[in-house]
């Protein structure tokens, strides 16, 4: 289990509160997904910037509101891109977390993509045209 302990240490502590009333999905979100998204944040920003560049659109000319819509839209509608992002998150799971994930992957996928969308939207100011 060398890999698992390395990954757990790399990711750090649980983010968010867990009580006896906390659902298993919320526990997974706070113990696994939030720390991974935080750790991988700069990577997700770079990957998203590459996605913008590959599609040669006018993203940088859009209003903030339209940029926010674009972020949501591209992650929800571009299946290949979404699957790549999902893989970047799942690759940071321990074996035990992966076993938990596959029992409820549909719901957890929705949760992880929504969290990633919100994280990217909250940093929309980072996506500016680099001169």
Please tell me about this protein's structure.
The protein contains 7 helices and no strands. The protein is mainly α. α2 crosses α7 (105-121). The termini are far apart.
Task: Output the keywords.
131 residues, 7 helices
- Low-confidence blocks of residues: none
**How large a portion of the residues is in β-strands, by DSSP E?**
under 5%
Q: Report the span from N to C terminus.
A: 46 Å
- Taken in chain order, the helices and strands follow as HHHHHHH
- Residue share in helix: over 70%
Mean pLDDT: 91
Short overview:
The chain has about 130 residues and is mainly alpha-helical. It has one domain (about 1-10, about 20-125). About 70% of the residues lie in helices and about 0% in strands.
Summarize the helices and strands and which ones pair or pack:
Blueprint: H1 2-11, H2 24-39, H3 41-54, H4 64-77, H5 79-90, H6 95-103, H7 105-121
Helix pairs in contact: 2-7, 4-7
Protein name: Glyoxalase
């Amino acid at each position: 289990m060398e890999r698992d302990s390395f990954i757990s240490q790399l990711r750090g502590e649980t983010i968010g509160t867990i009580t006896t009333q906390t659902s298993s999905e919320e526990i997974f979100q706070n113990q696994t997904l939030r720390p991974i998204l935080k750790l991988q944040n700069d990577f997700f920003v770079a990957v998203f910037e590459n996605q913008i560049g590959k599609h040669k659109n006018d993203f940088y000319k859009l209003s903030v509101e339209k940029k926010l819509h674009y972020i949501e839209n591209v992650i929800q509608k571009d299946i290949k891109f979404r699957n790549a992002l999902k893989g970047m998150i799942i690759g940071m799971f321990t074996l035990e977390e992966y076993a938990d994930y596959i029992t409820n992957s549909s719901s957890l996928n929705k949760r992880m993509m929504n969290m990633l969308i919100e994280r990217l939207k909250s940093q929309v100011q980072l996506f500016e045209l680099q001169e």
